[in-house]
Design a protein that fits this description.
This protein has 230 residues and is an alpha+beta fold. It has helices at 4-31, 221-229, and strands at 76-81, 86-93, 113-117, 128-133, 136-137, 140-141, 155-160, 165-177, 193-204, 209-219. The chain contains 2 helices and 10 strands; from the N terminus they run αββββββββββα. It is globular, with a radius of gyration of 25 Å.
Amino acid sequence: MKQRPLTIFLYGLSIACFLAGLFLLIRQYVLLPGKYEPPVSPTPALSPSPTVTITPSVSATPAPTPSPTPYVKPIPTRIYFTEAEVMADIVPVGIIEEGEGQGQMDTVDDPDLAAWYEPGPAPGEEGNAILNGHKSWQGKIGRFSVLWDMEIGDEIAIAFEDGSVQYFYAVSVDFYPYDNVPNEVMDLSGESRVTLITCYGDFDHAAGTSSERCVVVCQSAEAIAAKQAD
């Protein structure tokens, strides 16, 4: 009879350890997909103080015409879902060259990363910049699962290799069967927009993928204002 309190204590301690471990597991794979660091826009450069120009008494030698600066494609490096306080680094990808999914946009086998279709436009350029990400991977929730809960007007921010940051806002949130996604979702032409794609729904074992796709289209404030003015 004297050992019963000790048995109860050990039993209670075991339950407490189990619950603590369960909480940490949920916290790691569900509640905390990663530490969020808000995007920081570059500090604007200060305008230089005006200087007095002195006109020379003799004719100045004409300045040579500068050569046009070659265009450099912006490289996106990170996407921020500001309402959800979730972010993901961006990896450039191309087309799947062989095997299952051949001819389709590639993905990255990591739930914490986003894939950008590099042969297409960069976010903010004319046309359709496409990014995809996993809803989950090998039992861990993916950063792009936040697309499921996005609403019209929600903000995303995209940071670029040169340190600049651009902001975009959701103009549509749609769910399609995986085998009936409209062609315009992957169309690279047209107005400037960013298309975000992830899986949704139950896993279809026959197809080897989830049954649906969640597609969120975002545009800059300037593009949205121009459309509203038409």
